[in-house]
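To the team - acetyl coenzyme *A complex, inputs and output below.
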Amino acid sequence: MTQQNKRLRSVVKGVGSALPQRCVSNRELEQTVDTSDEWIVQRTGIKQRYIAGEGETTSTLGAAAARAALAKAECAAEDIDLIICATSTPDYTFPSSATMIQAELGITKGVAFDLQAVCAGFVFAVATADKFLISGSHKRALVIGSETFSRILDWQDRTTCVLFGDGAGAIVLEAQESEAPEGSESDRGVLTSHLRSDGRHRAKLYVDGGPSTTQTAGHLRMEGKEVFRFAVGHVTDVMRDAFAATGVTADDLDWFVPHQANRRIIDASAQKLGIAPEKVVTTVQYHGNTSAASIPLALAVACEDGRIKRGDLVMIEAIGGGFTWGAAIIRW
Ligand code: ACO
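Output:
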């Protein structure tokens, strides 16, 4: 192997997650919202979600998930020099949730910042961390997705409030030099990432407030059918880009871990690209849509139960408000 075949890869070292204490079933929601378990399950696949209580915030959940990921990675907090927290529901407008998590973990070196790409935030954060790590500028990253969407829901609007939940997930990525032949089973790490946005679709999914407009946090508003149509129509674009860039095919994938918005969007996307149903990791039934937290929460479940193992080929994919969308292929 010649010197020029060496390359830096961002390798996953550990995954962790954290959920609020309170789990709210569809049946419990029926008590306060004009809805039914049957409607929610049939339209979305969601059976329950976790709702943050007093003292549980995006930064506290994010810090708990980060701690769990560090433990799995057998990595000390002081060895982290990059923290990216994907969130649309920060504790405060500023400081960032990432710097709050950094302080909570006792980390005083490196850099920490938030990244906002709504439900696509975790894929955007993985892609961003990967670019830092493979440039050689940073060595070890905590990539976190943490959300408390329950705090921006209009609980009088049954078309949105039944869909979302709170939670956090995190992964530790480490820059490692690889001499393995590109695309081989020992070529571990983030192999490719593809991101897109198109701001013309703002009105289909947005929050109707903010510091520079209403000076409030606002509430989530959504044209559900339009979001559904766009999600199924477009998220496969970036998945195709990821396949083309790596030569990986749907058959080569061991696991497909999509954003957990809705069972029907997940199934339609997988079917469109010919990904076998048994390779699809689905956790929307347990967590609801936790926006930027949904993929790392699903990764944590599938790693914990032994499905995702070292050497597996994993595709992550998400679409969110903006619209923003992206996909990445990772050799675990
Ligand atoms: N409980 C009971 N009935 C309801 C509820 C509810 N929670 N919400 C709406 N309904 C009623 C409506 O009022 C309507 O009644 P009507 O026929 O008497 O007027 C009926 O159910 C059908 O409503 P639709 O909006 O047509 O329902 P649809 O089949 O489109 O499902 C849903 C709605 C689930 C929101 C769907 O459009 C969807 O999944 N969209 C994608 C949205 C999404 O996942 N967003 C997540 C954020 S973006 C992302 O993460 C990608």
